[in-house]
């Protein structure tokens, strides 16, 4: 249930311009966001472990 709330909060338009935050495209997490891939570190590790991110090996993360 908490994950759904994060995703809904991520889709909500911020009240002020300075409140815009980069968020993970998968889970909506605002912290530990990796800009190059558009996901947080948790989702990045799981995707890299599954081999869904090309060019990423265990030594590089």
Walkthrough of the structure:
- The structure is a single chain.
- This protein has 61 residues and is mainly alpha-helical.
- Helices cover 33% and strands 7% of the residues.
- The protein has 2 helices and 2 strands, in the order H-E-E-H.
- It has a two-stranded antiparallel ribbon.
- The radius of gyration is 13 Å and the shape is elongated.
Ordered list of secondary-structure elements with their pairings:
Elements: H1 2-11, E1 33-34, E2 39-40, H2 41-50
Antiparallel strand pairs: 1-2
Q: Give a count of the beta strands, DSSP E runs of length 2 or more.
A: 2
- Largest sheet, described in full? 2 strands, antiparallel
- How much is the radius of gyration in Å? 13 Å
- Give the strand line-up of the largest sheet: 1-2
Q: What share of the residues lie within helices?
A: 25-40%
H/E element sequence? HEEH
Count of helical stretches: 2
Instruction: Name the shape in a single word.
Output: elongated
Structural class: mainly alpha
Oligomer: single chain
Distance between the termini: 30 Å
pLDDT < 50 stretches? none
Beta-strand proportion: 5-15%
Q: How confident overall, as mean pLDDT?
A: 81
